[in-house]
Amino acid sequence: MTDPGEVRASDAEREAVVEQLRVASVEGRLTLAELTDRTEAAYTATTHSELAMLTQDLPSAGVAAAVPAAAPQGKKRRWFVGVMGDSKRRGTWRIDQELGAVAVMGDVVLDLREAEVRTDRVEILAVSVMGDVKIIVPDGVYVDLDGMAIMGDKKVNVMQAPPGMNVPVVRVQAYAVMGDVKVIGDSQAQPLQRGFAAWREHWRRLHGDDWREIGRQIRSQNRELRRQLRDDRWLGRGY
Question: Is the pLDDT at 181 greater than 80, yes or no?
């Protein structure tokens, strides 16, 4: 008898999981990077058990809390401004309205990877005048970059998902005058800092039991280095 978890997943079941992930993101349960990673995994899942792993820490689709209403049309845009200086937003933060970035002879960096996105998509107005606006997103999102550049540059360097996938969307309206507006993916940016527990689990998944042997080798090398340092100090004292 076939294990229920090994039953092949259908396209409709994959789409249902993707929608459940989207709802969880709007509720603040997933960061943009987590949503992107799980969405990609959902589209590549082949069995029910693989799909279940993606939502096991989320409310089931039937009991999920109601999705918060979209931000009202008249809500003010949240601005990040760098005038002859820098403005940077990284780490955990909340996006529940449209964003604006203005760099005038300065730099503005918006790192969206660990943000909780409470809207259906991220909307950004980016203006650069002899400055740089850099927007960092997880690889796998869909980036829609529009606008114009005069003696400057606007470009996207993101590994985007194949067409047809219901992935997170980042829309950027860019205006660059002797400056740059760039949207770059995770692979082009500084890696996210991991907590110790998450890093350890990530290492185990990558290397299996090899991490224990590597740890033993490092400890052995440290002991040998400390022994050599002690010997050098004794020799320096003439003993």
Answer: yes
